[in-house]
């Protein structure tokens, strides 16, 4: 028998008073409840809104990829209890039935608001994003950005939580088209809690412009999946399945939810509950990286009360579980849950990002589209930092090898190459170190250096990064080809008249970009590294505003 409460990943307020939902997993396909049990419920329907053929296809593909026997998601049902029916008696009845494999009782809770910070102008806050700094205090995203694919390009991150602000001026990629829902399904009724989602998305894909924040993996795409809808109520397992069905191998699912676990009121990872564990296992088996918060319960996940559900020798969903540290220190923050199942950690305090309004535009203070906060916290802030690192690793893997990394291999690489945790209070794993991780994984990577400006001419050169294994031979060469450029966001210009305003050309081992009258120009090109008969091609580029 399992009871749990669903909360956000920062300190929460009171629980939402809603219908009582019970999740039931049958032992076999097409099993049904006896009439005596059915009479207790207003409705009984599939827990997952995807058609059965889609659920079966995910299971079959995952089985083929991993050679593991994955759970049947189609055997899970969501039952809504009638008013006045005794919950405990109903649970006892369900657990006594021979054809019922698992039962879970779910009670919702709302997301909180939180404050902090001060007030200021809507200017460039990137200098306050210490979590992007070089190791060991940060994850060294700036190094990753200098590599082809190092911004997360080509990878989609799916954020699973309640709501988001689709109009923020620093989140151009976040809009209503990012929603992953059933075609006719009304969206979440918890739209008032969108600051949390806005903050999470800002950490990952904030626009790389001259103001606000810059996302840790700003080249990645973003999609969002509400964990609560009018049609289905709270249903995190269904949100994970919808994201998995929409995603491609190499993409990232971020679970920004925590639950009361291990029989008490302390917060831990959602996958403690079997329905979520089954959905996560299906996602990772299909090549999707799942990143999930460890929760803010200061809970030892190795304690006997957790029933071995966080013991990898008993079960392992393949997800990356993320703890939280005090900003810049790698010391466990007091509220982070911990244990051997936690893989890595991120900053759990003082994360600068979009939303909440601690920093506002002084002229238009009520304009939410220009709100920022310097104090996003919890495993809420730690998890998107790690999700961004995973997106960058997958993008660079595709650039260098032609395919993404397996989720289990990626998880191990992050942990093995991270900056070790310091201090005491329980194990939360290392802080990801992208420079160390990428150099140990990939050889002969192309690094695009920062453009060097002389008047209105910009020169972009390249380095060959050999990696820790010195995989590049001394005879490695770089070839630049397929150069194209665009002025002011229009189509590429080939007519000689436009060369007066801007152009790009290959100059030996570099690309030179020139422009006149302050006209913006974007250029991109292929860089091929040849080393000991092996050839790797990456697409690089530069944007001069």
Give the mean pLDDT: 84
Widest sheet: strand ordering: 3-4-2-5-1-11-12
- Strand count: 25
Helix content: 10-25%
The low-confidence parts are 1-8, 10-17, 108-121, 489-498
Q: What value does the Rg take, in angstroms?
A: 25 Å
Count of helical stretches: 10
Mind describing the biggest β-sheet? 7 strands, mixed
N-to-C CA distance: 59 Å
Structural features, described:
Helices cover 20% and strands 27% of the residues. β22 (502-507) and β23 (510-515) form a beta hairpin. The protein has helices at 35-38, 52-66, 87-96, 141-145, 194-205, 236-246, 274-285, 379-401, 407-416, 434-441; strands at residues 2-7, 21-26, 41-46, 76-81, 100-107, 156-161, 221-226, 228-229, 233-234, 252-255, 258-260, 267-269, 289-293, 320-325, 344-347, 351-359, 372-376, 445-448, 452-454, 457-465, 477-487, 502-507, 510-515, 521-531, 534-544. The strands form six sheets. Strands 3-4-2-5-1-11-12 form a seven-stranded mixed sheet, with helices on one face. α2 (52-66) packs across α7 (274-285) and α5 (194-205) runs parallel beside α8. It is an alpha+beta fold.
């Amino acid at each position: 028998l399992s009871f749990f409460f669903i909360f956000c990943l920062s300190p929460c307020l009171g629980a939402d008073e809603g219908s009582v939902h019970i999740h039931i997993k049958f032992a076999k396909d097409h099993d049904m409840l006896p009439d005596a049990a059915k009479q207790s419920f207003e409705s009984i329907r599939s827990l997952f809104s995807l058609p059965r053929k889609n659920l079966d296809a995910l299971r079959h593909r995952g089985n083929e990829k991993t050679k593991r026997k994955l759970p049947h998601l189609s055997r899970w049902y969501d039952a809504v209890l009638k008013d006045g029916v005794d919950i405990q008696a109903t649970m006892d009845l369900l657990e006594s039935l021979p054809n019922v494999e698992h039962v879970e009782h779910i009670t919702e809770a709302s997301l909180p608001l939180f404050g902090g910070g001060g007030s200021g102008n809507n200017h460039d806050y990137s200098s306050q994003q210490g979590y992007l700094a070089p190791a060991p205090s940060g994850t060294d995203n700036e190094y990753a950005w200098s590599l082809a694919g190092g911004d997360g390009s080509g990878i989609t991150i799916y954020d699973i939580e309640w709501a988001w602000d689709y109009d923020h001026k620093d989140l151009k990629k976040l809009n209503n088209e990012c929603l992953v829902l059933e075609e006719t399904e009304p969206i979440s009724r918890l739209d008032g809690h969108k600051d949390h989602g806005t903050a999470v998305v800002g950490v990952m894909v904030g626009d790389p412009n001259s103001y606000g924040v810059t996302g840790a993996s700003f080249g990645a795409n973003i999609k969002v999946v509400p964990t609560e809808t009018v049609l289905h109520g709270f249903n995190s397992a269904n949100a994970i399945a919808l994201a998995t069905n929409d995603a491609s191998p190499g993409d990232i699912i971020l679970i920004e939810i925590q639950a009361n676990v291990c029989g008490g009121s302390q917060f831990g990872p959602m996958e403690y509950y079997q329905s979520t564990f089954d959905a996560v296992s299906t996602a990772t088996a299909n090549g999707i990286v799942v990143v999930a918060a460890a929760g803010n319960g200061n809970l030892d996940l190795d304690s006997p009360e957790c029933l071995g559900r966080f013991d990898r020798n008993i079960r392992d969903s393949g997800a990356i579980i993320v703890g939280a540290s005090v900003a810049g220190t790698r010391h466990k923050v007091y509220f982070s849950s911990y244990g051997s199942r936690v893989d890595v950690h991120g900053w759990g305090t003082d994360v600068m990002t979009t939303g909440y309004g601690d920093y506002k535009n002084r002229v238009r203070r009520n304009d939410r589209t220009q709100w920022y906060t310097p104090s996003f916290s919890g495993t809420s802030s730690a998890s998107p930092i790690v999700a961004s690192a995973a997106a960058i690793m997958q993008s660079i893997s595709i650039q260098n090898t032609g395919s993404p990394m397996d989720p289990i291999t990626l998880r191990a690489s992050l942990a093995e190459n991270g900056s070790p945790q310091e201090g005491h209070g329980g194990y939360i794993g290392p802080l990801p170190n992208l420079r160390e991780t990428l150099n140990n994984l990939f050889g002969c990577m192309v690094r695009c250096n920062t453009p060097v400006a002389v008047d209105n001419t910009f020169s972009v050169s390249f380095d060959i990064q050999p990696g820790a294994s010195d995989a590049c031979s001394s005879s490695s060469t770089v070839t630049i080809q397929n150069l194209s450029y665009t002025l002011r966001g229009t189509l590429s210009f080939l007519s000689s008249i436009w060369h007066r305003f801007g152009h790009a050309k290959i100059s030996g081992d570099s690309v030179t970009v020139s422009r006149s009258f302050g006209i913006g120009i974007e250029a991109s090109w292929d860089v091929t590294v040849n080393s000991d008969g092996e050839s790797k091609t990456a697409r690089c580029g530069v944007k001069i505003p």
